[in-house]
Amino acid sequence: MGIVHLVFGPQGAGKSTYSRTLSESENGTRFSIDEWMVQLYGPDLPKPMNLSWIMERVRRCEAQIWSIARAVALNGGSVILDLGFMKATSRTEFAVLARESGLEYRMHYLHAPHDVRRNRVLTRNAHKGVTFSLEVTPMMFDFMEKQFEPPSHMELSGVITINTDVSA
Questions:
Q1: What does 74-127 look like in DSSP terms, one character per residue?
Q2: Less CB within 10 Å around the terminal CB: N or C of the chain?
């Protein structure tokens, strides 16, 4: 049996960078929700943005990603899920899916101070490096910041916690 890694944290915490590094060290298969959404739905994004339209498509991608990720892990592979996991219910849902499939899973929580994360996002927009999928405007950053549910003390039990603030 393989293992499923669930990588979560607020935007700009370094989830994509960490997931890429983890997939290399684990020789694992990485799934990034941003990459799937941009590839499948990017050209069709409504203007102005419509959150319910986006979330419906995120759920479709998550279902398909899980179907493939589960098969990879059941065949002995290591899977890294970089799906955002902004809400506790989403994190719990995927942990339950792994457990019900008889798969080992590990949760990885990345965090950094707000100003560090915001600066990372704006820098990523400007440089469009390897982890760039789509431009996150300051307004989008502020909106998504309110969407993230920090893990509770209980949720953090057994979670690999990483402070990605290099100045700390």
A1: HTT-EEEEE----SHHHHHHHHHHHHHTT-EEEEEEEE--HHHHHHHHHHHHHH
A2: C
Q: Is the dihedral of CA 6, 91, 87, 60 positive or negative?
A: positive
Residue 157: per-residue pLDDT: 93
pTM attached to this predicted model = 0.87
What letter would DSSP give residue 45?
Answer: -
Mean pLDDT by runs of 10 across the 168 residues of the chain is 96 92 96 90 83 89 97 98 94 97 97 88 70 64 82 94 82
What six digits make up the tokens of 157?
């039990």
Instruction: Decide if 57 is inside a domain.
Output: yes
Interatomic CA distance for residues 4 and 103, integer angstroms: 7
15: domain CATH number is 3.40.50.300
Number of domains forming the structure of the chain: 1
87 CB contacts (<8 Å, ≥6 apart)?
147, 149
Three-state DSSP at 160 gives: strand
3-state secondary structure of 154: coil
> Is position 115 within any domain?
yes
For residue 134, give the DSSP letter: S
The structure tokens listed for 57 are: 């498509």
Range(s) of the domain holding residue 63: 3-163
The whole-angstrom separation of Cα 138 and Cα 73 is: 37
